[in-house]
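Problem statement: downstream parser choked on a complex file, so we are re-checking the raw output for the iron/sulfur cluster run. The parser issue turned out to be on our end (a line-ending mismatch), but while we're here, posting the original submission so the record is complete.
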Amino acid sequence: MTGTVFSIEEFATFDGPGIRMTVFLKGCPLRCTWCHNPEGQRAAVEYRRSPNGCTDCGACLAQGEVMPDGTKRLTEASMRACPRGLVRRCGDVYTSEALCAKILANARLLSMNGGGVTFSGGEPTAQAAFLRECLSLLGGHIHRAVQSCGYTDAATFSAILADCDYMLYDLKLIDPALHCRYCGVDNAPILRNYRSLAASGLPFVTRIPLIPGVTDTAENLEAIAALMQSCGVDYAELLPYNRMAGSKYASVLREYDPQFDTERAVASREDVFARHGIRVKIM
Ligand code: SF4
Ligand code: SF4
């Protein structure tokens, strides 16, 4: 079985316990307006250009293609056309065996540091069959974590739960209409899978991105805290908004349109969670 990986971070310290190798699988069904990994959203291999040293000669664009929706993409020919070598492929196809061999080459070192491997993305469950095969091959050899937004069907999610050792689960917006507006999909599967995760007994952490005026409002944090409390969860990690989030969009010929106010005042988060008996850590 093969899967598409758009990045591998060798020694990550924020993607689960200990020091980890984080494998970013390509493709995500969500379109969060604040996403800082736009190159991970599309499932297919694509091409990116670096702004550093670009002379704006246009050679890469001349070899690009126009998609049915009118958007432009760089191509392999764009990569060959750039005189400065600034266009790179984004997405490598691995067999599960080859990817797991690469991970296991570091297994001893990672395990000595209480770490392991984390599958992230994009959204790793979007390549569920490949993810499950990798988790299965790695079982018993290295600690396996999955970082997920939880947007997948119930059967796939429970199969992945059974195949991994730890999960990092994102909760963004509880209001369904706001979730559709800012993330592009209904959040019903996400909330359902969160409850399944909490009931499963698998060690996990809840992660909440703090997007000014969107997720970081008193109403939304209150709703997240209430959900967590109802599931018996007493700890969350809060991820501050990354002000550099838009920097990668131009590299894949997209515009960054965050649709929120980065200056807006934030909620008093610790108080909101404390009222529900939940400890928080701002990452
Ligand atoms: S990325 Fe390369 S080909 Fe494209 S405009 Fe810049 S210098 Fe020219
Ligand atoms: S779920 Fe994550 S990878 Fe997918 S669009 Fe949202 S922020 Fe980006």
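For whoever reads this later: The chain has one domain: 2-45+91-282.
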